[in-house]
Design a protein that fits this description.
alpha+beta; Aminopeptidase; Alpha-Beta Plaits; 27% strand; elongated; binds zinc ion
Length: 417
């Protein structure tokens, strides 16, 4: 029986996993119940696994709780291995949900946790990987190396993968290649799209709290007006890319939020400004990363204000072109030649970027609906579950075939740049 047939036989079970996870969404870095569920499934299958739990750095903890996430002392993920020896391919699934309220009555397995919902399809990713684990375990003795499974937290925070890397998931055994798929509800079911090279943008956010000196609007000379600072920052930040970046490059910079003040006759004490910047090339990212804080510093100081900045960053995802060339045929074996296409880079971001900066990686978009469906992050988004076994089969086929074709005398016979 081929891999797709086996995966299709497990269709009900994949659905069951997804529904359980969907009913019990958790957000952020700390996902105790979801991790327990994943570990219980792995335990039952006799798969070696461990909980990746650690304390969150105090600065990061404060930053995310200020950004509206629950206060999280710990992060939790799960890593498992099937097979043994070199080489090692890692399959990654995210487990975290979004702070979104799920509308009632859309599905009969809706979220039991108000204000939390799996609106990015990570429930499906986790379910497909659990099911892939089962199929891989059944053929463990035939594997030409190790398949490492990473169930990670905090993708929606933009840096959960980074925490897992710092925890050591790319070592022992060392990961030689990494693969992940992301469902897309408004892409034709079964269609896989990917971009060799830069696949998703790097995303930078600076939240700036500007501290001035409030007072009566008739006495501006005795005040430091934070709204003037906001205004000038808004203009200067928007000019930055147009004057300092090669026009052939792309920078999507948006000051998406400015707030402060209460009445025409009051100069407020403070104001807030949030700027987001998406870029597609390392040098451009680094330029903006250096210049945005400089512009903030100089503009605020020019008007005698003070400020605090909170910075969030997700690097671009780089789909290694050589790895893409190797893995694509294994996906075509599952979904057919006509269902794999190259697409342009997207301006969204994914923290798989952190993994792809460390080891050769590939992320693909996996269609599970059609163009009329609401997009990811929409509370009405839905997944046509008939495609989930295909996702499972893709994960299994990519891992087993890549291992078989990359091994010579128990060593990796491929090189990546
Ligand atoms: Zn998302
Ligand atoms: Zn996602």
């Amino acid at each position: 029986m081929d891999i797709l047939e086996k995966a299709l036989k497990n269709g009900r079970e994949i659905q069951k996993h997804r529904h359980t996870i969907h009913r019990n969404p958790e957000i952020g870095f700390y996902l105790p119940e979801t991790c327990d569920y994943v570990m219980k499934c792995l335990e039952e299958m006799g798969i070696e696994h461990k909980l990746c739990k650690g304390k969150i750095d105090e600065e990061i903890r404060a930053k995310f709780s200020k950004a509206g996430f629950p206060d999280m002392e710990y992060y939790t993920g799960v890593v498992a291995t099937i097979g043994k020896g070199k080489p090692c391919i890692m399959l990654r699934a995210e487990m975290d949900a979004l702070p979104v309220d799920e509308p009632r009555g859309v599905v009969n397995f809706s979220s039991k946790n108000p204000g939390k919902m799996h609106a990015c399809g990570h429930d499906a990713h986790t379910a497909m990987l659990i099911s892939a684990a089962k199929l891989l375990k059944n053929i463990e003795t035939e594997l030409n190396g190790t398949v490492k499974l990473l169930f990670q937290p905090g993708e929606e925070c933009g840096c959960g993968a980074d925490m897992m890397i710092r925890h050591g998931v790319l070592e022992e055994p060392h990961v030689d290649a990494a693969f992940s798929l992301h469902v897309v509800p408004n892409q034709r079911g079964g269609l896989i799209t990917y971009t060799p090279g830069t696949m998703t943008a790097a995303m930078e956010t600076f939240e700036v709290n500007i501290l001035g000196k409030g007072g009566h609007s008739s006495l501006p000379h005795l005040c430091i007006d934070p709204l003037v600072i906001c205004n000038q920052l808004y203009t200067t930040l928007n000019l930055l890319a147009t004057r300092e970046i090669d026009p052939r490059e792309t920078v999507a910079l948006t000051v998406g939020k400015i707030s402060g003040g209460s009445a025409a006759n009051i100069i407020p004490d403070s104001a807030k400004l949030s700027v987001g910047c998406r870029t597609f090339k390392k040098e451009v990212t680094e330029h903006m990363q250096r210049r945005i804080p400089e512009v903030i510093e100089h503009t605020v100081k020019m008007w005698k204000g003070k400020y605090e900045t909170t910075h969030f960053f997700t690097p671009l995802t780089y789909a290694n072109p050589k790895l893409c060339g190797e893995l694509i045929p294994y996906m075509k074996e599952v979904v057919g030649e006509e269902n794999v296409e190259i697409c342009p880079s997207v301006s969204g971001s994914d923290d798989f970027g952190y993994i792809s900066q460390q080891v050769p990686g590939m992320l693909v978009w996996f269609g599970t609906g059609d163009e009329t469906q609401p997009a990811l992050h929409n509370p009405n988004m839905q997944i046509d579950e008939k495609w989930l076994p295909y996702g499972t089969a893709i994960l299994v086929n990519v891992a087993t075939r890549w291992l078989a074709q990359s091994t010579k005398n128990g060593r990796l016979n491929r090189e990546y740049i």
